[in-house]
Amino acid sequence: MSTTIDHLRGQLADDLRTAGELGDVEALRVKYLGQQGLITGVVRGTDFSTLDADARREVGKRISGLKTWAEAEIGAALAEAEARAARARRRGMVDLTLPGTGARPGSLHPVTQTQMFLEDVFQSMGFRVETGFEVEEELYNFDALNIPGDHPARDMHDTFWLEDGRLLRTHTSATQVRAMRMHGAPLRAVFPGRCFRCEATDASHETTFHQFEGLMIDEDVTVSTVLAVMKALLEKVFGREVTVRLRPGYFPFVEPGFELDLQCLICGGAGCKVCKRTGWVELMPCGMVHPNVLRAGGLDPERYRGFAFGLGLTRLAMMNFSIPDIRLLGTGDLRLMDQFPAVL
Ligand code: FA5
Asked: Structure pTM?
């Protein structure tokens, strides 16, 4: 019996020396202390009835000593292996034997999808795409657009000013004069991008949102040509006939100016919180470029006429994907994004 106990002790000590991984030590625990384990077998296999009282006490003590020792040794080895594994994880080591977690396919944000679609449509009509600057000069965001410092229209744009006098652009119209100065006329360009306004948020207003500006300058541009293009464009976006309406609108940088509204596609015109119960969503202000703006861009207003529009890109994406609250779009919540699976 003593030989068996000593042999098991030596065998377990050897085994523990070569068991590096957590799984190896756990296997040793089963091998020695499990239901069918070697030490459990010694306990079960000893016939105490054949021994006298002293020998019973002695053998019992040795077996129980072996078991206690084995439990302590294996417990310590488990703890050590666990600590080693944790250290390896912290070092960024990868256990290549573990099953993989699977790759998660990404998807494009609904606003990005809408923007890319519009860019394709306009590029196919010969428009160049320019993104302009999110941090902009007062000159391009306001003054060159016929909005001098004391103009009341500035109050409509709750502006984030920077300490150096520049600002976060409040609209993509800020790129108009830059593009005129850079490319001259004739000019066909679209300016997609983020805009910023320091205003209270609700289901259709965010402090950060996207616009998609369009500018077309040539000698023979008229309102009616461009309106036809706009309606055709919206029908391409939505893949069905849409109802739009045109109202007079005032913007200092266009004359005449219009507001193009889209019948709400969330409620079908019945009224909901997105359209503020009116059945209409203000989507696209537009108009003929004001002569002062053409002049600021270095163009002769006697020769050239221009048309500009400022599409609310975020709102268009909301209509397109039936998203009921603009604030959902900036959360980065993948449960929302997973529902728009245009894959990267
Ligand atoms: C403008 O920003 C003008 N620059 C548009 C323009 C361009 C007029 C060219 C004429 C010629 P307005 O402030 O209305 O206009 O904004 C244009 C569109 O941006 C709105 O119709 C709306 O769809 C969207 N928009 C404006 N403010 C927000 C906001 N806080 N959150 C989400 N979308 C907004």
From this structure: 0.70
